[in-house]
Design brief:
The chain has two domains: 119 residues, no CATH class; 80 residues, no CATH class. With 209 residues, the chain is mainly β. Helix content is 13%, strand content 33%.
Length: 209
């Protein structure tokens, strides 16, 4: 323990690896998949137990999951154990390593893989499709970082090759990176107003994706 490459879950790893292999064999994922986290509550002592005060479940195992977006079927998972390197992705940040590891067999499979802004980076968008992104990430264009005054429903974008950076003003600013649709393609979503009523608000097609 404490040595480079030590895995806190080494006793459980053969079981989790076998389960991940079997999950891919018994179910073929559809074209839209999502990466997210699931907290498994635990009250006992464990070196891999996480404390997350902002989560509904505050103490437990943090399990990274790749699931089908329509029914939630999990095809790949990994219990967060604090390992510094995952399958050779040591040069990437934690969120990037999680996505690259879970989606290793689905790279270039023409599937839409989405994930929220904890995972998203410019590096990942070279591989995957459409994701909400935090405006302070590296290599992002200025339009995602500026505090522009925009009316509800307005959006702007900037492209580089086949990648688009999009900012949309919903109830609050939403920033997105996409390789999935044209940034000019628009649709609409329903949003609540302050008085409790609802309105149809224009938005880029990447937002509901």
């Amino acid at each position: 323990m404490g040595e480079a490459g030590y895995d806190r879950l080494h006793r459980l790893r053969p079981v989790s690896d076998d389960l991940n292999c079997r999950l891919k064999e018994v179910y073929i994922q559809l074209n839209v998949m999502a990466v997210n986290e699931s907290i498994v509550p635990i009250k006992g002592h464990s070196s891999v137990k996480q404390y997350m005060p902002m989560k509904p479940v505050k103490r437990g195992y943090n399990v990274w999951c790749l699931a089908e977006s329509t029914n939630g079927f999990v095809s790949q998972f990994d219990i967060h154990s604090g390992r510094s390197d995952t399958q050779g992705y040591s040069l990437f940040a934690l969120g990037e390593r999680v996505v690259l590891t879970l989606c290793d067999t689905y790279t270039h499979s023409h599937r839409l893989i989405t994930f929220h802004n904890f995972f998203t980076s410019y590096q990942l968008l070279k591989i995957f499709n459409v994701d909400n992104v935090r405006g302070n990430r590296k290599w992002l264009p200025d339009i995602l970082k500026r505090n522009d005054r925009m009316h509800r429903g307005e959006f702007m974008f900037q492209t580089k090759g086949c990648m688009a950076a999009i900012k949309w003003q919903g109830n609050k600013p939403v920033t997105v990176l996409s390789m999935y649709r044209s940034p000019k393609q628009a649709t609409s979503v329903k949003r609540k107003n302050k008085d409790g009523t609802s309105s149809i608000v224009p938005c880029p097609a990447t937002v509901p994706d």
